[in-house]
Design a protein that fits this description.
704 residues; 18 strands; alpha/beta
Length: 704
């Protein structure tokens, strides 16, 4: 049995190593790692199921440091337990090119499950991870065959619980009764600018109790025995997520900075660091000293993890022997690949078919894909009838106590977590983070859906998905002033510009049903996040019979070529406005103008094509260009060029029928025609095509 002395040495090793790294960088947050070291030690050495030599082993427990500013706690644990994170990297904390950035980044540092730092996001990610675990267990586990059986642990702080996203996520997790979700609350009563009694005096336990959580208080954050008992009790709570409220002391051991907000976001200082080492009985003032006995104890995680993984692998082999079909499917999910027939049954429409909104087309595509992609799952923020994202006949992800009629039950158990429709409720903030958590967990291909205007609520999660390269799918409908009667509060104007500015995010605004299907086909194969912007209003199915290499995956293509194949100008549109370009092209023929129509569903994908392809679609020699999109003009001059015209809307919309708004704000074929004629100096004819009141209602401006 390990002595208390060794335990104290190990805990203090976490504290001092973290404080040394922060001091060495002269930047960072030493307080949390020092205060939370004991509970992190108890979790990582007694409970966490992981293999440092195979960080991607599927049935590992997931650990999320939601309070990402305390990143040195995680980096210390990763190094000490034997992950491929050398001490040299801790010495280079927060420095250029290091593997130890200021806040944890998925894909950048081994062992980091999700990128955290924006407070509350990690907590929401943890809820998504627990959802993924529960769904996979319900779908694949069988009697005497527990293939999926792990916990999701998260350390959160006062700041996390102040952010509104955690209330949404906690409410969702409580409703779903995610028993394998365990949060440890670093309750040190200190935030960055002072004590929490200035701003945060609610009864957190009572709040989580009301949300359907099991709560347990540990009054002494250094009492590892009580922390261990609390975790064991949480593990026994199969039908409630758990929050363990641990009373800790920020900057523990620092004579002057313990329990002081100055320990939150600033190094201790050399003098205080040495005083802390003396107070904790540290044997040396040298930085980055690691006691061999402590390191050896932490490194026991290597053999322990290897044994756990080997035992699981044996269970998996036995599972595949007894259930070969399910085993093969599970293998496919772990690989992240799609089955050979994944695209079977995808719909296709002719130009003579009845017009259809791209949200409806998206629903058809999604349901066709779901038949052949068994782990495609998700839902909306209480908007399935509007976003058309219900997976028909595939059941609801619900605990059995609240599951409704027709819900798909689990295999061999009372829980009904095998359904693939997730009811997120009116919780866009939590939905975004949970979808990311599901994607990070692996084994599922998740989507979330709401109106485009509410992407504002999901922006932090979308940004983190792009930063992390997560395969998260975001379905946003009601993509323009075409929303109509709901008015400017629900009509996105600036959103596309903002979303397109996020590095690593692919935004697709398809023009019709067939482009929408292609967008979905791209998204399920793409390795990063994809965002759909879909219409509420019906749009015609475009005739692509004469299109040149029509492909959403290339971002833009020639939909209709000019008569004779030599265009004098180019009309460029996205989404519902592409049809206006097609009509304008026909009108321009009557004025002797030959125009090419380019559909540009994705700026990002087009920008990724080689220069030769881009020049074929948008030749540099053709200066006369008109772009049209029912959204902000911001960024469009990149494609219009210095001599082109951009038609958009740089003000809020109004409440009226969508078609009337489109007409009044200049989103008509006549306005496109007029703008094109003006590029040839034919202003009088342009005025005859489109009256000046409409021309000035929309934004039509030259480049620059």
């Amino acid at each position: 049995m390990r002595t208390q002395t060794l335990e104290n040495l190990c805990i203090n090793t976490i504290r001092i190593l973290s404080a040394d790294a922060v001091q060495n960088a002269n930047s960072g947050h030493p307080g949390l790692p020092m205060g939370a070291a004991a509970m992190a030690y108890a979790l990582w050495t007694r409970f966490l199921k992981h293999n440092p030599k195979d960080p991607h082993w599927f049935d590992r427990d997931r650990f999320v440091l939601s309070a990402g500013h305390g990143s040195m706690l995680l980096y210390s644990l990763l190094h000490l337990t034997g992950y491929d994170l050398p001490l040299e990297q801790l010495k280079r904390f927060r420095q250029w090119g290091s593997q130890t950035p200021g806040h944890p980044e998925r894909g950048h540092t081994v062992g980091v499950e999700v990128a955290t730092g924006p407070l509350g996001q990690g907590f929401g990610n943890a809820v998504g991870m627990a959802i993924a675990e529960a769904w996979l267990a319900a779908r694949y586990n069988r009697p005497r065959h527990k293939l999926v059986d792990h916990y999701t642990y998260a350390i959160c702080g006062d700041g996390d619980l102040m952010e509104g996203i955690t209330q949404e996520a906690a409410s969702l997790a409580g409703h779903l009764r995610l028993g394998k979700l365990i949060g440890l609350y670093d309750r040190n009563h200190i935030s960055l600018s002072g004590a929490t009694d200035m701003t945060f005096t609610e009864d957190v336990a009572l709040r989580f109790d009301a949300n359907g959580w099991h709560t347990r208080t540990v009054t002494d954050g250094d009492d590892t025995a009580d922390i261990a008992r609390a975790i064991q009790e949480a593990q026994q709570e199969e039908r409630r997520p758990s929050l363990i409220l641990v009373r800790t002391h920020i900057g523990y051991g620092s004579p002057k900075k313990q329990d002081n907000f100055s320990a939150h976001g600033s190094p201790l200082g050399e003098e205080e660091l040495q005083a802390t080492k003396r107070a904790l009985g540290w044997p040396t003032m040298d930085k980055f000293y690691l006691p061999k006995e402590a390191v050896d104890h932490f490194r026991e995680a290597i053999d322990k993890g290897a044994r756990a993984q080997q035992e699981w692998q044996k269970r998996f082999e036995a599972y595949k022997n007894d259930f070969p079909e399910e085993g093969a499917e599970f293998d496919l999910l772990l690989s992240g690949k799609l089955s050979e027939n994944w695209a079977a049954g995808l719909p296709n429409w002719n130009s003579s078919d009845q017009p259809m909104s791209t949200r409806v087309a998206g629903g058809h595509a999604l349901n066709a894909l779901a038949k052949n992609i068994p782990n495609l799952m998700g839902g909306s923020a209480d908007l399935n009838p509007s976003t058309e994202t219900a997976l028909k006949g595939l059941g609801d992800f619900q605990p059995s106590e609240v599951a409704g009629a027709g819900t798909m039950g689990s295999v061999g158990g009372e829980w009904s977590y095998a359904g693939r429709n997730l009811a997120f409720g009116v919780r866009e903030h939590a939905m975004g983070a949970a979808v990311n958590g599901m994607a990070a967990h692996g084994g599922v291909l998740p989507f979330g859906a709401t109106f485009l205007v509410f992407s504002d609520y999901m922006k932090p999660a979308i940004r983190l998905a792009a930063l992390s390269g997560l395969k998260s799918l975001y379905v946003f409908t009601h993509d323009s002033i075409g929303v109509g009667e709901d008015g400017p509060t629900h009509e996105p104007v600036e959103h596309l510009a903002g979303l397109r500015s996020i590095p690593g995010l692919t935004v697709i605004r398809p023009a019709d049903g067939n482009e929408t299907v292609e967008a979905w086909a791209f998204a399920v194969q793409h390795g990063g996040p994809t965002l759909f912007a879909l219409t509420r209003q019906n749009v015609p199915h475009l005739d692509r019979g004469n299109a040149k290499d029509p492909s959403v995956a290339k971002g833009a293509y020639i939909l209709s070529e000019a008569e004779g194949g030599t265009p004098e100008m180019i009309l460029i549109g996205t989404g519902s406005e592409v049809a206006l370009c097609v009509k304008a092209r026909e009108k321009l023929k009557g004025y002797g103008v030959s125009a090419r129509v380019v559909s540009m569903p994705s700026w990002e994908l087009f920008a990724q094509q080689d220069e030769a392809y881009r020049d074929r679609v948008l030749p540099k020699a053709i200066k006369r260009r008109v772009t049209i999109e029912a959204a902000s003009t911001f960024g469009w001059h990149r494609w219009a060029g210095d001599e082109g015209t951009v038609i958009g809307i740089d003000h809020f919309g109004a409440s009226a029928p969508g078609q009337e708004l489109m007409k009044r704000f200049g989103f008509t074929a006549e306005h496109v025609t007029s703008a094109a004629l003006r590029l040839f100096g034919r202003n009088e004819e342009a005025d005859m095509v489109c009256g000046p009141e409409t021309t000035f209602a929309a934004t039509a401006s030259g480049g620059g």
